[in-house]
Inverse folding.
């Protein structure tokens, strides 16, 4: 067995792993960063449509609001100790000037690759040893480590006889989301073998496939909407924003935000639906929309129903509402019955999208679930089960909403893991 001298070994050169490696090196530790790809930060380079929304200054309502998981409060300590302002300063110190779009923060270059380069350069500058094209396939405790030394891990490399030895190990292998970037959930398997509990993983920040042929007729529509997720009859989440209709269902930022709830509900065999209000800025009450439509019908009585929604709703959407209410487009508006008025009011304010499935990990921006945070210290990211084992980033059961929150989590947890592992080196 070839023995390496490295003290802190970080697996995964994504956002969290690079931050952890840099911070461990800054404490004076000897650091080895291992990555299966031929370059670091493959996923990071694709973030924010190539522009990288790397944090967000709005940190109100964190636990359960901007951050989710079985124990979302876990994230608060890390997010407060290395929050967005510190992250902005940190990146500025390595050359990344911030560009603010409201509370959303991007590199001034608007290039995600510049964030990857800045991290990589800094790691090299600090003497972090970077090992690319190195797929770790198994991680175990080094049982030969002395009884007083709780640390000590062995890492097996795919296609090689080499076994890498680590005193401190930081797992930053990400989730299963966007597996083409290298994140295939390997770290979950090792953590489980080391005694950790896994919270089931589901795709998050993704679109939802819905039942019915009407989506083909609405594809391409973008409209403001209020969404309520129902598991059976119980509302479990709400969201508002620009909804996008696709030929298979619903998408857009508000759908991404709620998709994790739908994914878990479907996984548990529940009837999941999203009730959509297409006029969220007017009212969410059916009676109000009924009155609005009644007056509109009086004003536009000389038209036919094909024009009834023109100027209020997207035409494609209006056509589908008529179709679902079984109203002929040629029917005169003046002939609209009370029952028909009720039907179109109801479809406008609480259209039911029956969820079939969420898009798979391949199309998801992150995963919900992962290593249970109950077994990890929120102050250090160290395992409470295996000493000297640390976790950082999306591998943990914490998922953020869109808007820079997942990268902020990668920086905060990576920072704490790196500092803690390095300080103990
Ligand atoms: C298209 C897209 C856009 C996004 N946009 C944003 C955004 O603008 N803002 C935001 O906040 N979040 C965004 N996210 C989410 C964000 O990118 C992730 O939450 C974040 O990158 C997770 O970082 P991580 O370091 O935990 O994991 P990852 O970035 O997934 O890194 C894990 C690394 O570990 C390596 N690895 C895995 N297994 C092994 C192994 N066995 N051996 C060796 N190496 C291994 C992988 O190759 C990978 O490089 C986006 C995600 C996607 C997919």
């Amino acid at each position: 067995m070839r023995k390496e001298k490295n003290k802190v070994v970080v697996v995964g050169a994504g956002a969290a792993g690079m931050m952890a490696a840099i911070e461990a090196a800054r404490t004076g530790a000897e650091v080895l960063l291992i990555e299966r790809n031929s370059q670091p930060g493959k996923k990071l380079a694709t973030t924010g449509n190539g522009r990288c929304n790397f944090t967000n200054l709005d940190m109100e309502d964190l636990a359960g609001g901007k951050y989710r998981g079985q124990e979302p409060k876990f994230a608060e300590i890390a997010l407060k100790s290395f929050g967005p302002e510190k992250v902005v300063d940190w990146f500025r110190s390595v050359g990344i000037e911030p560009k603010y779009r409201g509370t959303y923060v991007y590199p001034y270059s608007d290039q995600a690759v510049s964030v990857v380069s800045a991290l990589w350069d800094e790691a090299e500058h600090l003497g972090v040893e970077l090992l690319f094209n190195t797929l770790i396939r198994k991680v175990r405790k080094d049982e030969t480590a002395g009884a007083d030394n709780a640390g000590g891990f062995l890492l097996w490399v795919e296609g090689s006889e080499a076994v890498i030895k680590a005193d401190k190990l930081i797992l930053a292998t990400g989730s299963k989301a966007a597996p083409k970037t290298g994140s295939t959930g390997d770290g979950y398997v090792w953590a489980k073998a080391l005694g950790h509990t896994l919270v089931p993983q589901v795709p998050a920040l993704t679109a939802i496939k819905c039942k019915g042929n009407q989506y083909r007729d609405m594809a391409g529509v973008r409209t403001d909407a209020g969404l309520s997720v129902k598991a059976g009859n119980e509302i479990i989440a709400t969201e508002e924003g620009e909804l996008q209709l696709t030929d298979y269902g619903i998408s857009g930022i508000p759908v991404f935000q709620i998709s994790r709830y739908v994914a878990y509900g479907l996984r548990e065999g529940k009837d999941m639906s999203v009730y959509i209000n297409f006029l969220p800025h007017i009212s969410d009450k059916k009676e109000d929309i009924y009155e609005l439509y009644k007056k509109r019908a009086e004003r536009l009585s000389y038209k036919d129903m094909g024009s009834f929604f023109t100027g209020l709703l997207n035409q494609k959407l209006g056509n589908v509402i008529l179709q679902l209410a079984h109203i002929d487009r040629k029917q005169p508006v003046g002939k609209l019955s009370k029952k028909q008025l009720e039907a179109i009011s109801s479809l406008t304010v609480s259209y039911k999208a029956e969820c079939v499935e969420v898009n798979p990990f391949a199309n998801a921006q992150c995963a919900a679930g992962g290593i249970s945070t109950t077994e990890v210290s929120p102050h250090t990211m160290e395992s409470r089960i295996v000493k000297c084992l640390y976790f950082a980033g999306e591998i943990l059961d914490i998922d953020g909403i869109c808007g820079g929150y997942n990268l902020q989590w990668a920086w905060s947890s990576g920072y704490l893991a790196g500092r803690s592992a390095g300080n103990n080196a």
In short: The first strand starts at residue 8 and ends at 11.
